[in-house]
Design a protein that fits this description.
By secondary structure, the protein is of the alpha/beta class. It is about 55% helix and about 10% strand. The chain has 13 helices and 5 strands. A 5-stranded parallel beta sheet has the order 2-3-4-1-5, sandwiched between helices. α10 (about 210-220) links the parallel β3 and β4. α7 (about 150-165) packs parallel to α9 and α9 (about 180-195) packs across α10. The protein is elongated, with a radius of gyration of 39 Å. About 25% of the residues are buried.
């Protein structure tokens, strides 16, 4: 008798027992007719209308757009703005050379050009004119002075631009260590791309340039929003590459005007014969007149 009871206790459960429990769990507290009726109601609900589908699509699009705009805003916040730097201060005794300045402005504004070579022998005022022009533009453009007399200084100043813009140029410098020309081109491209992302129109002053091929490397991929003034003593080196403007000595009237302003600035009395005599002795080169006074 005990053996029969033990067998009943350890009897394995049949598949029918499992099915019965599963059915009971699915039915829950409902009766079978009530359960079936609720399922029929769920499956016969009307499909969403075209208006509802359109509204759902618009809401989804707006959510995605908001996410993208948030990402872009965050990305832009991480990009540093480049500040202006002009080597020479604006001079109160600057003599305006209207025709040259107008030609310079027109050349830079031309999207098919955008680069102008300002040439003339030493001391005639090329850098001074470029600086004066730049001071007049710094409210609408970022202006940066670049030392272009040799490769070391030119490269160093472009690397400084990259650093200020948050551009990591070190991996590029390592990769292209054996190819200076390619490195110069790629470094400049990285700087221009950063300025383009900033929507930051920029005027570069490449001062006292001598090597036209070196300068060409840096200006090869210059976008239209980046303008450049190149000052040089060597017109021949840049011939045929960019538009050129020649700057010569002052005219007699310009020389007299320059000295008169200088004397007033220095609070030094002068006479017209004294001005004429100094011009005759020193000449009409701006730098020589500046040194003579």
């Amino acid at each position: 008798q005990q053996s029969g009871m033990l067998k009943r206790l350890v009897r394995p459960q049949s598949p029918q027992d499992d099915a019965s429990r599963t059915f009971s769990a699915w039915l829950g507290q409902e009766t079978l007719p009530a359960k079936l009726q609720r399922l029929r109601e769920q499956t016969t609900q009307p499909a969403p209308s075209d208006k509802e589908r359109l509204l759902s699509h618009v809401k989804g699009t707006l959510r995605r757009t908001a996410t993208i705009e948030s990402f872009r805003a965050q990305e832009m916040a991480n990009i540093a703005q480049l500040s202006s730097y002009i080597l020479l201060a604006k001079r109160s005794h600057f003599v305006e050379r209207t025709a040259t300045t107008e030609q310079l402005s027109a050349t830079l504004a031309d999207k098919d050009k955008g680069v102008c070579v300002l040439h003339g022998f030493g001391g005639v005022g090329k850098s001074t004119l470029a600086a004066h022009y730049s001071h007049g533009r710094k409210d609408t453009q970022t202006v940066r002075w670049i030392r272009a007399e040799d490769s070391f200084k030119l490269q160093g100043d472009y690397q400084q631009l990259a650093q200020e813009l948050g551009v990591d140029y070190q991996p590029l410098a390592t990769k292209l260590a054996a190819d200076d020309s390619q490195y110069h081109q790629e470094l400049a491209r990285m700087v221009y791309n950063a300025l383009d992302r900033n929507h930051q129109p920029t005027l570069l002053i490449l001062d006292n340039a001598e090597n036209a091929s070196l300068v060409a490397d840096y200006l090869l991929d210059r976008p239209a929003a980046i303008q450049a003034i190149i000052t040089t003593r060597s017109a021949e080196a840049f011939e045929g590459k960019y538009d050129q403007l020649q700057l010569g000595p002052f005219s007699q009237d310009q020389g007299e005007g320059y000295l008169e302003v200088r004397f007033k600035e220095m609070k030094r009395p002068y006479t017209n014969p004294e001005v004429a005599s100094l011009l005759k002795e020193v000449g009409l080169v701006a730098q020589k007149l500046n040194l003579a006074t």
